[in-house]
Design brief:
About 45% of the residues lie in helices and about 15% in strands. The chain is of the alpha+beta class.
């Protein structure tokens, strides 16, 4: 069972997954985000930004609690550029001191609301780092709204090469890839709300329905109808 709630951290989401029976592999779609995750099996993990869907096992008995940061916030929490974790799932102990991670893992595992502990961990790291890069939110918002990369660079007072470098550090990939991923998220939201595929394509800036279908397969690995029915 999957549940989520809005976090007290701006733009973040706390989510939980509990497996009571083997459900077969699951598909995690790219979203431009990074997550801090506690697993009953593996402890504290970091999920880097994905460029394509990740197929993950879902064995019975596993429990996960995660804090999903808005695009561009993860690097300020984890202390390294997003591209260093692109398409990866790594133990938090590979990034932070082992003794600190062991203490944090115990705090999360023993708490009756582990999501609150994850939020406290992230809030402390953000406060120590001075918060997320202020470029992240307006850049992600502009691209999510369909702004062209060159226009986004102009709006932020950056050259396209500067924007690409900053985007790699903040999101794990360049602004064109981020724009593709955010557009896919908009398209899926419309499709899951019952909007016909042709209208979804028109409203989200795809050339036509065939273009939408190609992008869905490229990023998600399955047809749109399979995602909508999931």
């Amino acid at each position: 069972m999957y549940r989520e709630r809005t976090s007290g951290l701006a733009g973040a989401v706390v989510w939980t997954v509990t497996r009571t029976a083997d459900a077969g592999p699951g598909r995690v779609l790219p979203d431009g985000c990074m997550d801090l995750i506690w697993s009953s099996r593996s402890g504290l993990l970091v999920a880097g930004p994905d460029t394509v869907a990740q197929v993950v096992p879902r064995p019975a008995g596993d429990r996960y609690v995660g804090l999903r940061f808005p695009p561009g916030t993860g690097p300020a929490v984890f202390g390294l550029p997003a591209h260093a974790l692109r398409d990866q799932r790594v133990p938090l102990g590979a990034l932070w001191p082992g003794a600190e991670v062991a203490e944090l893992t115990e705090r999360v595992a023993s708490h009756d609301r582990p999501g609150r502990v994850l939020e406290a961990i992230a809030a402390a790291r953000l406060a120590a780092d001075g918060g997320p890069d202020p470029l992240a939110a307006p850049l992600a918002a502009g691209l999510a709204a369909g702004r062209e990369v060159a226009d986004a660079a102009d709006a932020l007072g950056l050259g396209t090469r500067q924007l690409h470098r900053r985007s790699l550090a903040l999101f794990g990939y360049g602004p064109k890839t981020l724009a593709r991923i955010l557009r896919l998220r908009r398209a899926l939201a419309l499709a899951r709300a019952g909007t016909p595929a042709a209208e979804v394509a028109a409203r989200t800036g795809y050339a036509d329905q065939a273009h939408l279908s190609r992008e869905v397969r490229s990023l998600a690995g399955v047809p749109l109808r399979q995602l909508v029915g999931a």
